[in-house]
Specification:
Strand content: under 5%
Distance between the termini: 132 Å
């Protein structure tokens, strides 16, 4: 079949020239969403200087130290609470001195 077409001279060659992919040809690059446009504008407007960066890092370091100090204090407080005897419960009666009282001796003390 192909031999008959080539013999007849009726073949038409079609060629396409495909160039290398170019980032500027991207549809999103040509027409970026508004959200991206705003983000790009913010990034260009918010160039941070070395001094600003150092200030932010110093602030973050101070905050980290405060948090660590709070954690240490909390751990010390919890440790001290565990070491203390449990006298602070409101429901608990005073410590027993080891003397067992009978009901008769308690009623006789109340009558006096």
């Amino acid at each position: 079949m192909s031999s008959s077409l080539s013999d007849a001279g009726g073949t038409r060659a079609v060629a396409f020239e495909v160039g290398p992919p170019d980032a500027s040809d991207s549809l999103i690059r040509r027409h970026p969403p508004r959200k991206f446009q705003r983000l790009e504008d913010q990034q260009q407007a918010n160039t941070i200087t070395q001094e600003q960066l150092e200030e932010k890092q110093a602030t973050a370091e101070r905050r980290r130290q405060e948090i660590l100090t709070q954690r240490v204090q909390s751990a010390k407080h919890r440790s001290a609470m565990r070491m203390r005897p449990d006298n602070d419960d409101g429901d608990e009666v005073e410590k027993d001195d080891g003397v067992i009282e009978t009901a008769a001796s308690i009623t006789s003390e109340n009558e006096l």
